[in-house]
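Re: 5-O-phosphono-beta-D-ribofuranose structure - here you go.
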Amino acid sequence: MPDGPSPLVGIVMGSDSDWPKIQSAAAALDEFQVPYEARVMSAHRTPEIVRQYATAAAGRGLKVIIAAAGGAAHLAGVVASHTTLPVIGIPVPTDVQGGLDSLLSTVQMPGDVPVATVGLGSGGARNAGLLAVEILALADPALREKLAAFRRQLAEKTNSKDAALKSTLGNRTP
Ligand code: RP5
């Protein structure tokens, strides 16, 4: 990350092999000019670093943590156990049924320690970034307006697709 404003979102991932699969989370933050930092740390391989990172996160000014891992994906849950910041979990796809192992490991948190788990795949990772933006927008009216503009664009794009389908199909689209 180049020098710039202090990060508001921390992205942590269990391995560098996760990064290509979750980059759309960072891209969504970039789209909304939300500063973030990214680290590789593992609930199993570097548990003490995870504990230290999560414990210090709020004091360092982070507002949201996005945690991505695959397989026995405990990273998001362990991060959540060490902080009261909102934690968004990205289950990283694996060779095991497309990542069902990651999804269940991330989503099935015990009551009292929430992890907001997004779906598998790049759409899920993108949603992690967008959800972080939405959380930050609660206290940032300018960011809220950017999100509203983004949603208007989404509607316009979908309406254009509807119009294109109508012109192709004619009277089959009422
Ligand atoms: C998990 O194990 C990581 O999050 C990654 O998804 C998976 C495999 O890691 P590597 O063996 O590629 O380092 O902890």
